[in-house]
Design brief:
Keywords: 2Fe-2S, Iron, Iron-sulfur, Metal-binding, Methyltransferase, Oxidoreductase, Transferase. The protein is α+β, with helices and mostly antiparallel strands and 342 residues long. The protein has 2 domains: 115 residues, Rieske Iron-sulfur Protein (3-layer Sandwich), CATH 2.102.10; 204 residues, Naphthalene 1,2-dioxygenase Alpha Subunit, Chain A, domain 1, CATH 3.90.380.10. The chain is 17% helix and 33% strand. It has 3 helices and 18 strands. Strand 2 and strand 3 form a beta hairpin. Helix 1 crosses helix 3. It starts with 6 loop residues before the first strand and ends in a 6-residue tail after the last helix.
């Protein structure tokens, strides 16, 4: 149920300060992460090859990490370089090491064949360190199959109902977006016109507006959207002819811990020139909205687990959901047969 030859987010850069070892589990595989002396990120299997003790409980020594159960020391490649009490290191004494890249304030780990780890496959995003954008990062743990969260991102008709208190607006359920198939995912574009502001902003935005939502969802689970708000114009198709009032980016990644849990990393922000209050409002709104998603999706997953053979009825809004599911199933099948999922 997982694509392996992909980059997965293992956390925000601030999750891993120098001198600290953290534990992560991605697609069911336990990882220990720490920084070398030059600041680069090391990701290795969180399981000592001796007695399978967790290496995230180890201590950093230079660029190496020492298992604090019996003292074996491993270098960043995962090779054991010291066994206390003996001169000879067994040739097979090693743990798996994973390629890493730090970009846009995310720590990316390649979970598949290391020879295929191409940094060019890392999706575009804007991080909180960007000089022009005031991005506010956060994360949530969902007790659900990660694919259900991706489904949710591909079908914004749920904004009308799940997010009736935060986003709201009947228009989301009664309009269809433009869907474009990409090599590694989907692009979805939607205009909504002459509508009230999102519910969580209506205390400061009380008129009528045009909104543009343009986003991509790329394998395995990265969502990037540019969201713009204009004064209500007269155009009924194509770009709004109203005045641009708000320009924002939101960057999100859904990372499967295992078959039943996932971590949702997300940020939303406006240009720094718009002032901190704008991004503060966006950060508060998106966090509350994702708590609404969490409640609904975890309930959905509980029902699926209780009766996994129950039939689901398809509707028109499932178009992008179904296409993405097929794309991921093909990638997983290709990997199983030894073909690159690229």
């Amino acid at each position: 149920m997982f694509v392996r030859n992909c980059w997965y987010v293992a956390g925000w850069d601030y999750d891993l300060p120098p001198g600290k070892v953290i534990a992560r589990k991605i697609i069911g595989e336990p990882l220990a992460l720490y920084r070398r002396q030059d600041g680069g990120v090391v990701a290795i299997e969180d399981r000592c090859c001796h007695r399978h003790a967790p290496l995230h409980l180890g201590e950093i020594e230079g660029d190496c990490i020492r298992c604090m159960y019996h003292g074996m020391k491993f270098d960043p490649s995962g090779r054991c370089v010291e066994v206390p009490g003996q001169d000879r290191v067994p040739p097979r004494a090693a743990v798996r090491s994973y390629p890493t890249v730090e970009r846009d304030n995310w720590i990316w780990v390649w979970m598949g064949d290391a020879a295929r780890a191409d940094p060019e496959l890392i999706p575009f995003s804007i991080g909180p360190g960007d000089p022009d954008w005031d991005m506010r990062p956060n994360s949530l743990l969902f007790n659900a199959d990660y694919r259900l969260v991706i489904d949710n991102l591909l079908d914004f008709s749920h904004l009308t109902y799940v997010h009736r208190k935060t986003f709201g607006g009947d228009i989301f359920a009664y309009t269809k977006p433009e869907i474009t198939r990409l090599e590694r995912g989907m692009r979805i574009e939607r205009w909504v016109r002459n509508v009230p502001a999102l519910n969580f902003t209506q205390h400061i935005m009380q008129g009528r507006y045009d909104m543009h939502l343009d986003y991509s969802v790329l394998m395995p689970c990265v969502f990037v959207m540019r969201f713009k708000v204009f004064t209500a114009g007269t155009a009924v198709e194509g770009p709004s002819d109203g005045e641009l009032l708000l320009d924002t980016w939101t960057c999100q990644s859904v990372v499967p811990v295992n078959a039943e849990q996932c971590v949702y990393y997300f940020s939303w922000g406006a240009p720094k020139a718009a002032g901190q209050e704008t991004s503060n409002l966006l950060a508060k709104g998106i966090y509350q909205a994702f708590l609404e998603d969490k409640e609904m999706i975890e309930g959905q997953y509980a029902n699926i687990k209780a009766n996994p053979d129950a039939r689901m009825i398809g509707i028109a809004h499932d178009a992008a959901v179904n296409q993405m599911r097929i794309l991921m199933e093909h990638a997983i099948a290709a990997e199983k047969t030894g073909i690159a999922a690229e």
